[in-house]
Design brief:
Number of domains: 2
Radius of gyration: 19 Å
Strand order of the largest sheet: 3-2-1-4-5
Number of strands: 8
CATH superfamily of the largest domain: Recombination protein O, C-terminal domain
Order of helices and strands: EEEEEHHHHHEEEHHHH
Structural class: alpha+beta
CATH topology of the largest domain: de novo design (two linked rop proteins)
Distance between the termini: 50 Å
Number of helices: 9
Low-confidence stretches: none
Mean pLDDT: 93
CATH architecture of the largest domain: Up-down Bundle
Helix content: 25-40%
CATH class of the largest domain: Mainly Alpha
């Protein structure tokens, strides 16, 4: 493969040695792939912060499933506020971990890649990011083609919840738990409404603290059930703590 230049979003990282690490990135054409990164004394380590968008020049990959290499990495989008604000950083860590633990490797997802360009700009430029993770998850559900069908008036009165395993409406009235994968009807409607809004509009949606948590974790569960399988998002507790302060 001839060296090329590609853009990528950083979503995960594992230390390999004192001078190198394997970084997982989301790319437009190849989906999630691992790249080999040298992290010596002269390396620009901040560039590999979660949700950094970088351009990799001299990008090469010998075979599918293998580690990619590159000659030089440069930042595509600014990250001054992201790197210096705990709230923005916690949102970035959460979103990156959701992508890392929810998306399958090697699956091209151009809609998700384009969504991330919008989200990274919002993290950097918006005055408040307190509900950005909710907005992101709703848009991610939509980008992955999981959004439930619109209900007609005749059947809406019978529906009590959204069954996350199937993505279908259900007459079962249950709360979201580790065993019961149901999102309440009202919160499922919020999920659908937010996906059709811009970020400014979505900030006007009023949710109680408990509803906000259930909607967020329900959307994460929804995505994972249809892609990677259920995996704990460890950064959620940090996110909740920082925004509760």
């Amino acid at each position: 493969m001839e060296p090329v230049a590609i853009q990528a979003v950083v979503i995960g990282s594992v230390t390999y040695s004192d001078s190198s690490r394997v970084v997982k990135v989301l790319t437009e054409e190849n989906g999630v792939i691992p790249i080999w990164v040298r992290t010596g004394k002269k390396a620009k380590k901040a560039i590999w912060h979660p949700l950094s968008m970088v351009e990799l020049s001299g990008f090469t990959r010998k075979k599918s499933g293998g580690l990619a290499n590159f000659k030089e990495a440069s930042r595509c989008l600014p990250a001054n506020n992201l790197l210096n604000d705990a709230k923005r950083s916690s949102v970035a860590f959460f979103i990156a971990e959701v992508l890392d633990k929810s998306l399958e490797d090697e699956v091209p997802l151009p809609e998700v890649f384009n969504l991330m360009i919008d989200i990274i700009n919002l993290i950097e430029l918006e005055n408040s990011v307190s509900s950005l993770h909710i907005f992101f998850m709703s848009r991610l559900v939509d980008a992955l083609g999981l959004m439930p069908e619109e209900l007609d008036v005749e059947n809406s009165g019978l529906v009590k919840s959204l069954h996350l395993d199937t993505g279908e409406w259900s007459e079962i009235n249950r709360s979201l738990t580790a065993k019961d994968h149901y999102l309440s009807f009202d919160l499922a409607l919020k999920l659908m409404a937010i996906s059709g809004m811009n970020f400014e509009q979505s900030q006007r949606i009023v949710l109680s603290k408990s509803d906000k948590k259930e909607l967020l974790l329900g959307m994460v569960m929804f995505v994972q059930l249809h892609h990677s399988g259920l995996r704990e998002i460890k950064s959620y507790d940090v996110l909740e703590t920082i925004f509760a302060a």
